[in-house]
Amino acid sequence: MTGAKGKMAKSGITVVGVGGAGGRIADVVAEAVGDAAVVVAVNTDARALEESRAATRVQIGAGRTGGLGAGGDASVGRMAAEDDVQMIRGLFTGSGFVLVVVGLGGGTGSGAAPVIVREARNAGALTLCIAALPCGFEGPERALTAQRALKNFLEASDAVIAVPNDRLFESVGSADLAGTFGKADRTLGICAGSLIKMIDQPGQINLDFADVQHIVRDSGGTCTIGFGEGTGRKRGDAAVASLLGSPLLEKGRVIEKAESLLVSIVGGPDLTVKDVGKIMSAVSSRVREGCRVSMGTVVDEAWQGRVTITVLATDRREAARPARVAEQPVEYKEETAKPSRRRRKKPVAAQAQTVLRLETYGKGRFKGVEPTILDGEDLDIPTFVRRGIAVER
Amino acid sequence: MPMPPIVGLEIGTAKTVALVGEMREDNHVMITGMGERPASGVRKGEIVDLENAVVGLRTVLEMAEESGRVSIRQVYLAVSGGHIQGLVNRGVVPVLDEDGEITRDDMEQAMEVARAVNLPADREVLHTICQHYCIDEQTRVLRPEGMEGARLALDMLVLHGIRARLNNTVRVVLSIPLSVQDVAFSGLCSALSVLTPEQKKSGVVVIDLGAGTTDYLCYYDGIVAAAGALGVGGDHITNDVALAFTIPISQAERLKRDSGSAVIAAANPAQKVILPPAGGFSGRSVNLRALHTVINARAEEIFLMIKNRLEKAGVGHHVGAGMLLTGGGAHLKGIGELAEKVFGLPCTIGRPRHVSGLATATEGPEYAACSGLVQYGFRTNGRQHADSLIGRLKALLGR
To answer: Which of A14, A29, A45, B264 could form a disulfide with B292 if both were Cys (CB 3.0 to 4.6 A apart)?
Structure first.
C-alpha cells in the first residue's frame, strides 16, 4: 500500500476516455476533478474528438479509418491503437495512476482500450478501468464484443469496474434517448471523479488505490458502483437517501447482498463527525453479516455545504467470474476444503481468500522499484502467484 | 615485458567483487588479490542508490589493494541488467578486387558495416561479436580471406544496453575516483571464464544465475549465437519465499540456502523446516514441499524464458557440450537437475578455469564472471597493441 501511494505522490493521475462514450465520460471527469488529473480523449473518430473537452486529444488509426471511427469493429479499434502505439505510450510518461473510462460494445472502445491499458501498465502505472457494458436492447452482438473486451481488460489492468448500462439507465430514469445516455455518462463521470479524488487526496480516514483494487479483485471483475449526493443543512440524510434510493444499487438491495463494500465520503470543511457517523451507520445497518466494509473520507474545499458518497459493492453470486479464477487448479480447492487448516473458514470466505491472494502477496522488496515486465507479465510478482499454484502457508 | 596487473570489478546485486590478476608465463592468469563485500544500493543489477554503492565499493577496493599489494588506479568493469539485449546485424559489402578475391580489407569493411547498427537513441553498443561470413549464396564461412566471390556479408551479434543505466555503474567507479579501462557484459565474462575451446566448438549454453539478473550466452555452430540478460534472479526467488510464508527477507534468504531446492525434493508432504526465532522474528515452521514448490516455479520460469529466447535465436538441439551454470544461484540444490529437465541437455556447474591463485576466487561458480573479466582484460589489453580491431574480436570469439 505504501508503495502504491508513494508512487502516486511522485507522479500524476491520467484519465483516458476511449471511444465515443469514453470521451463523453472523460469530459465529465475533467469537469469534476479539475487539475487533479490529466484528462485525455482517444478516439478514431475525428469529429467526436473535436467536440471533446479533454486537455489532450489523440486521434488513432487515422490511416486505417480515415478519421471516420472504427465502425463497430473491435479488431479495427485494436489495430488503430497498435498503429499509433508510440503516441499512446507517450501519454503515460510520468503517470503513476491511469484511469481508463470506456463504453464497451463499439469498435474503438472495445478494441483500442485494452491496448491502451496494456501500455499504461507497461509504463509502470497502476491501472483501473471503468467500463460501461451495453444494455440489452443494443443486441447480442454488441454484448459479445463487450464481453470479449472485458476479458482483455481483466487480463491487462490492475482492476476493472464494469457497470451494466441497463442499471445506469434505470438510475437516471429519463425518457428520451439522448437524455438517458447523457445522464448515464454524467453519472459514471461523477463516480469516476469521486474515485480519483479519493485516491488523489489524503483523507482523514484514508482510502487509496489498494483498497479499490482489493474490492474490485474480490468481485472477480464486475462490481457495482453507487453514488449519492446531498446538499444543505440535512445533507447527510439527503446523501444517504439518494444513495439508497438509487437504482444503481437497486434501491439499497445491493448493499444488503454485498460481499464487501468500499465507502468513500467527500465533504467540505464543514463535514461533521455526525454526518459521517450517520452515513456509516445507515450503510452498516444494512449490510449482511460477514461483509467487509472499508471507508474513507476526503475533505475538499469545493465541497462546502455538500456531501457525496461513492460506494463500490461486490456481490459474489451475481458477479461474472473471470476465466483466471475459474481456471484455479483443482488441487487448490482440496487444500482449502481440508479441515486440518489452521483456521477453519466458511467455504465462501475460503474461496474469497483465493481471489484476494493476488494483492495480499504483492511484490515484496520489489515494490516501488521499476518493474521487470516481459511479454506483458510483471516478473516481480511471485511466479507461484501468477501461475495460480497452491502453496500451503 | 610483464604486463601490469589487471583489476576486474563486478558491482553485483548481492555482492561487489574485485579481483587482481597477474599474467604469468604460458598465458596463465594468477589471481593475487581480492576484495568482496555484500553489495548495497543495487537492485536487479542496476544502481539504485549511488551513494551507498560508492561506500561499499571503496571498502572492496581497499581489501583488494591490501591483499594484492597493488595500488588500484583503473579497473575493468562488468555490467549486467535486464536491459541488455542482443541482435544480429548483417553487413554486406561488394568485393573490390577485380578477380573477386576477398582480402582483409573487404573483411574489415564488412565488419565496419555490420557494426554500424541502428539503435534507439538511448541505447549503446556494448560488444560486437562476429558470427560468420557469407560469400554470395554460400553461408557459414568462417575465414573468407583468399576465397572468391562478388559479395561478402558478415553477421554480427551486437550486444547493447540502455546508456544511462550502463553509465550509472561506470559513474560509481569514476566517483572513487578510478578510471574504467573497459566495460564488459558479465554474461560474456562468465563464458570466457568457464568454457574450454572444445565446448565452444561443439556448442554450449552458459547461464549465470546472479542475484539480480540472469545472464546467458550460447555458442552454437562455432559462433556466439545468442546472448542477453533477464532482470530476474536469485533475489526474486528469495522474495517469492518471503512473500509465500510471510517471513523477513533475511530469513527467506537463509531458508533458501539451507533447505531450498529447485526441484520438489521433499518425499514426505508433511515435512517441516523450523525457523528459529531471531532478532525480532518470532520463528515459525515452513512446509518443505511448499518451499520447494515456490522455488521451483520461479527457477523453472527463468529457464523457460531463456529457452524461449534461444529458440527464437535459432539455436536447435545440437548444443553438444550441454550447459554450464555459474553465479551464486548455481549453488541452489537441484538447479542442475531442473535445468536438465527444462533444456533436455546435460548440465554441470561452471567453475572458473585458466586461473589459479586465491582458492575462493578460482573455485566458486559465483566468481566466474569476475575472473572471466580479468581474462577479458588481459586478452583485449594484449591485442590492442598489435591489432586493435580484429584482434579484439577474435579474442572474444576464442578462436
So the answer is: B264
CB contact under 8 A, A392 and B231: no
Q: Domain count of chain A?
A: 3
Q: Cβ of B294 under 8 Å from any chain A Cβ?
A: yes
User: How close A77 gets to chain B, by Cα (Å)?
Assistant: 28
Q: CB distance B44–A369 less than 8 Å?
A: yes
ipTM: 0.83
Distance from CA of B244 to the nearest CA of A (A): 7
Fold adopted by B196-352: Nucleotidyltransferase; domain 5 (3.30.420)
Domain match, A286 and A365 both = no
- Answer with the residue of higher pLDDT: B161 or A154: B161
Chain A residue closest to B269 (CA)?
A: A392
What's A40's domain CATH number?
Answer: 3.40.50.1440
Q: What is the pLDDT of residue B328?
A: 93
Query: Domain boundaries in chain B?
Result: 85-161, 196-352
Residue A249: is its pLDDT beyond 80?
no
Contact B239 A364 (CB under 8 A): yes
- Measured CA to CA, the distance from residue A127 to residue A120 in angstroms comes to 7
Q: Return the pLDDT at A327.
A: 33
In tens, the pLDDT along A326-351 reads 333 333 333 333 333 333 333 333 33
Band of residue A175 on the pLDDT scale cut at 50, 70, 90: low
Same domain, residue pair A266 and A128 = no
In a domain, A319, yes or no: no
> Residue B240 is nearest to which of A384, A392, A393, comparing CB atoms?
A384
Does the pLDDT at position B194 exceed 90?
A: yes
Q: pLDDT tens-digit profile of A113-172?
A: 888 988 888 887 778 888 888 877 777 888 888 888 887 777 777 777 877 777 777 666
**Interchain CB contact of B273 with A (< 8 Å):** no
Does the CB of A356 have a partner CB in chain B at under 8 Å? no
Contacts of B230 in chain A (CB under 8 A): 372, 374, 379
pLDDT digits (tens, 9 = 90+) for A33-43: 777 788 899 98
Check B232 against A379: CB less than 8 A apart.
Answer: yes
B256 shares contact with chain A (CB less than 8 Å): no
Domain that holds residue A95: 10-200
Predicted local confidence at residue A222, as pLDDT = 57
Q: Are residues A51 and A16 in the same domain?
A: yes
With respect to residue A123, please indicate whether it lies within any of the assigned structural domains.
yes
pLDDT band at residue B141 under the 50/70/90 scheme: confident
* Binary contact (B293, A362; C-beta < 8 A): no
My answer on whether A51 and A173 are in the same domain is yes
Partners of A379 on chain B (C-beta within 8 Å) are 230-232, 236, 301
Is residue A321, in this structure, part of any structural domain at all?
no
Which of B82, B235, B293 is the closest to A384 by Cβ? B293
